[in-house]
Specification:
Helix 2 (43-53) packs parallel to helix 3 and helix 6 packs across helix 8 (197-211). It is elongated, with a radius of gyration of 20 Å. The protein is built from 8 helices and 12 strands. The protein has helices at 20-31, 43-53, 69-77, 93-101, 114-126, 162-173, 181-189, 197-211; strands at residues 12-16, 36-40, 57-60, 84-88, 106-109, 136-139, 142-145, 150-153, 156-157, 178-180, 221-224, 228-231.
């Protein structure tokens, strides 16, 4: 048997699908073509494995028992640019558009031709982008698990509001770099919020109260006057 995928490095594929038959079919197909394959039957397990295994490509079903596939995709995209190919029985145009708009690289309808799937995988891997940050970020006493949306300070869980978490996630994924007021406002509130810098002052004050040892003299989340904010990298 020829293995057309084995001329280069071994690629790791993660299959997230609740159908055992599909997982088995994809595993047999990919392993016969030189891939190393892991699989998950739920969205939560898929997110955990995406963080742990660091796959080169993810094949994702939309109809999972615990989370919608699009939600899993959005969660992955919060911290990773790994290529994601949707495998779904849904063939409506609006489902495809929603998945692609949420960050999917391709969309394959079930039942699928295995040769076509392999070709789609090769195309996705050719256009892969840098993976970005690790799933778990640490700076001093702060630990942020992006795959679980979990924030710890000195080992204790810190409860953040959705907006606070969104701001912190942006700082973590650009750690050490200055994020401008415009960038933060656009990412969290949208284009219409540009100029509303008081939003940032309020929410960053709350973040510092929860995360800094001395909120009045912050050492983790620092202000760049008239420009924006920066998360300081420290061991």
């Amino acid at each position: 048997m020829t293995h057309p995928e084995t001329s280069g490095p071994v690629h790791i594929a993660l299959v997230i699908d609740d159908e055992p038959q599909i997982r088995r079919l994809v595993r047999v197909t990919l392993e016969a073509n030189g891939y190393r394959v892991f699989d998950a039957a739920t969205g939560q397990d898929g997110l955990a494995q995406a963080a742990q295994r660091k796959p080169d490509v993810v094949l994702l079903d939309l109809g999972l028992p615990d989370l919608q596939g699009v939600e899993v995709l959005k969660r992955i995209r919060e911290w990773s640019r790994v290529p994601v190919i949707i495998l779904s029985v849904r063939d409506r145009e609006d489902d495809k558009v929603a998945a692609l708009d949420s960050g999917a690289d391709d969309y394959v309808t079930k039942p699928f031709n295995t040769a076509e799937l392999l070709a789609r995988l090769r195309a996705a891997l050719r256009h892969t982008q840098p993976q970005g940050v690790e799933a778990i970020f640490r700076a001093g006493s702060l630990e942020v698990d992006l795959s679980k949306r979990l924030v710890l300070k000195s080992g204790a869980e810190i409860k953040l509001t959705p907006i606070e978490y969104s701001l912190l996630r942006l700082l973590v994924t650009h750690a050490g770099k200055v994020l401008t007021h415009r960038q933060l406002l656009t990412e969290v509130w949208g284009d219409k919020a540009v100029g509303q810098s008081h939003y940032l002052r309020v929410h960053f004050a709350h973040l510092r109260e929860k995360l800094e040892d001395n909120p009045g003299a912050p050492e983790l989340i620092v202000t760049e006057p008239a420009i924006g904010y920066r998360l300081v990298l420290r061991s």
